[in-house]
Amino acid sequence: MGGRQVTEADRRRERAAQKLRENLSRRKQQVRARRAGQADETDGLPAAKAGDNAETAAKRDESQ
Questions:
Q1: Average pLDDT for 1-25
Q2: What is the distance between the alpha carbons of residues 64 and 60, in angstroms, rounded to a whole number?
Q3: Residue 49, C-beta contacts closer than 8 angstroms, at least 6 positions apart
Q4: Which residues lie closer than 8 Å to 52 by C-beta, 6 or more apart?
Q5: CA triplet 49, 54, 57: central angle to 5 degrees?
Q6: At residue 45, does pLDDT exceed 80?
Q7: pTM of the model
Q8: What residues have CB less than 8 Å from 30, skipping those under 6 apart?
Q9: Is residue 50 classed as helix, strand or coil in its secondary structure?
């Protein structure tokens, strides 16, 4: 047997490393898109519309 046991800390480190790789890949893709003149396709929150206040924006966000 002699194999190394995988600890929870090792799993956390591996998940963090995977997230960093995904983030780097996404950022590189964004840079390439900007160089090519294409719009960014972000997964963030939608922008507020004119006339929205915090309450209506929060209600719209909860409904999605």
A1: 90
A2: 7
A3: none
A4: 60
A5: 50
A6: no
A7: 0.48
A8: 40
A9: coil
DSSP-H helix ranges across 1-64: 8-35, 54-63
The tokens for 45 are: 């929150």
Q: Is the dihedral of CA 51, 56, 58, 64 positive or negative?
A: negative
Give the Cα separation of 16 and 11 in Å (integer): 9
User: What does the DSSP 8-state code read for residue 44?
Assistant: S
Residue 44 one-letter amino acid: G
- Residue 51 in tokens: 């006339």
- Residue 33's alpha-carbon distances to 2, 6, 26, 39, in angstroms, are 48, 39, 11, 7
Cα 12 vs. chain centroid, distance in angstroms?
Answer: 18
